[in-house]
Amino acid sequence: MSIFSDIAIVWSKYGTQILSGIGNTVLISIAGTLIGLLIGLFNGVIRTVPTPKNPVSRAFLTVVNWIINAYVEVFRGTPMMVQAMIIYWGYAYMNGGSTLPLIPSGIAIVSINTGAYITEIVRGGIISIDRGQFEGAMSIGMSHFKTMIHIIIPQVMRNILPSVSNEFVVNIKDTSVLNVIGVTELYFYAASAAKNSYKLFASYLIACAIYFCLTFTVTRVLRLIEKKIEGKANYTVFGSQSDSVSEIHINEEETANV
Amino acid sequence: MSENIIEIKHLKKDFGNNTVLKDINFSISKGETISVIGSSGSGKSTMLRCVNLLETPTGGEILFHGQNIQTELDISKYRAKVGMVFQSFNLFDNLNALGNCMIGQTSVLGRDKKTAEKKAMEYLEKVGMTPYINAKPRQLSGGQKQRVAIARTLAMDPEVILFDEPTSALDPEMVGEVLSVMKRLSESGMTMIVVTHEMAFARDVSDRVIFMSDGLICEQGTPEEVFGSPKREETKSFLSRFLNQ
Ligand SMILES: Nc1ncnc2c1ncn2[C@@H]1O[C@H](COP(=O)(O)OP(=O)(O)OP(=O)(O)O)[C@@H](O)[C@H]1O
Ligand SMILES: [Mg+2]
């Protein structure tokens, strides 16, 4: 029997079920990446707070920074599959066997994991912004948090977008480990199709193709978004005809055409 | 003289075991323009940065209308009243010229967008940057960036503006446009402390010149006194080095 007929058989019987796993895979990876990004931004902002003079707040900040460091180290240093097991069964252990709902658990695990990676990415992004802009903001009286929100984070977001996109793609693939706690995502259904049809190669080949389609599409879409965010290379001269009334841009392509 | 806005008393600053400012004393009154000159490494920038608390003084005190800026004043409110213009402009790269001049007003002074925009436009016009309000910093020349930076500071309605070598990073042909803005500001009665290597500006525009050397104020007086008949040897040799360049 050829692999093609195997694929056809698995697809005709389990295709819809496998496809139905896409929803959860995408949901968990999108939600996990976004929440992870928020965690990362929050941690990055806290980690770059200038050392306060007040000894009490300084001690407090030290403790908070220590917790963030521990969080980053632990979650980057252990496999997500194991984390999933520990969080899921640990909760059950401590709550007399009652378990957390699966999808929220999956989202939580991916978020916490992604947050650990993005914390580091954000910190790098903040450090890469030149000192001068922080001083410019300070010199007009802006606090650390105002500076972060209005000046630094918008620039960091732009700079880290490629890394965050990368995390998102990694998450699409890595949600597959959540099948160990029984989250019904793409891999879960592919595995069950494999088990029931005894056509393991064909089933996983189908899963592989779907994963690739997902990540490939997502990569392209994100690249488009990155381009959009890059922004215009030109500006309109205020008060000139080009200002809102008629748009004449100072633009390389146009001058080339003239 | 009229009331002192800022009074610096026995200001001292160490970086580790490197004493950069030893004992700085001077005050500036309303409407005055002071030029601070001196050789590289004499501590001019450090002194200015201490006044804005970008550096924490190691000793002495700085009074703003008689109040200690470190213990008696809210740092944000104080900084909003004391503007600073940097050698490297330090504009916000994510905002256009207009945004740069509005963000401090809206986020620190709590002005509404409309008021902030009006004010920003007013000062951008003053520095001749009206045509470029939509441009991001990376689309502007050095001289244009510095004029936006001055407008950003002015838009906060500061009582004093500190300039740290505002023209040192500029190509020679752009120095003039920035200096002329500063000259007009000085003439309009703004209180200014200007660290500069532009001796012509120090001589022609300022009311008082301070010559710093080795962490101390070595000599000070009117431009005529300092440039015309310097008393100290350090001042003479500094000036002769400059004039012979
Ligand atoms: N953050 C810092 N840490 C350690 N040393 C510093 C720091 N900032 C300045 N210094 C030292 O303080 C001294 C005075 O520096 P400062 O920048 O105030 O000089 P300046 O008079 O402004 O010189 P220039 O005309 O070159 O700008 C220098 O020796 C410098 O190395
Ligand atoms: Mg300097």
Could you give the topology of this structure?
The complex is a heterodimer of chains A (258) and B (245).
Chain A (H helix, E strand, L loop, with lengths): L2 H45 L7 H22 L3 H15 L7 H27 L2 H9 L4 H31 L11 H12 L2 H31 L21 H6 L1
Helix pairs in contact in A: 1-4, 1-6, 1-7, 1-8, 2-4, 3-4, 4-6, 5-6, 6-8, 7-8
Chain B lengths: L3 E12 L2 E12 L3 E6 L5 H8 L7 E6 L2 E2 L6 H7 E4 L11 H11 L5 H14 L15 H13 L5 E5 L7 H16 L3 E5 L3 H7 L2 E6 L2 E6 L1 H6 L4 H11 L2
Parallel strand pairs in B: 3-8, 3-9, 6-7, 7-8
Antiparallel strand pairs in B: 1-2, 1-4, 4-5, 9-10
Helix pairs in contact in B: 3-4, 3-5, 4-5, 5-6
Bound molecules: adenosine-5'-triphosphate and magnesium ion.
Report what the structure shows.
The complex is a heterodimer of chains A (258) and B (245). Chain A is mainly α and 258 residues long. Chain A has a single domain, classed as MetI-like fold (Orthogonal Bundle). Chain A is built from 9 helices and no strands. Chain A is flat and about 75 Å long. The relative contact order of chain A is 0.15. The longest helix of chain B has 16 residues. The mean pLDDT of chain B is 94. Chain B is built from 9 helices and 10 strands. In chain B, the strands form 2 sheets. Chain B has a 6-stranded mixed beta sheet, sandwiched between helices. A 4-stranded antiparallel beta sheet of chain B has the order 2-1-4-5, covered by helices on one side. In chain B, helix 3 packs across helix 4 and helix 3 runs parallel beside helix 5. In chain B, 49% of the residues are buried. Helix content of chain B is 38%, strand content 26%. Chain B is α/β, with parallel strands linked by helices and 245 residues long. The interface between A and B is medium-sized, with 27 and 37 residues. The complex binds adenosine-5'-triphosphate and magnesium ion. The site of magnesium ion (MG) has 4 residues of chain B, from helix 1.
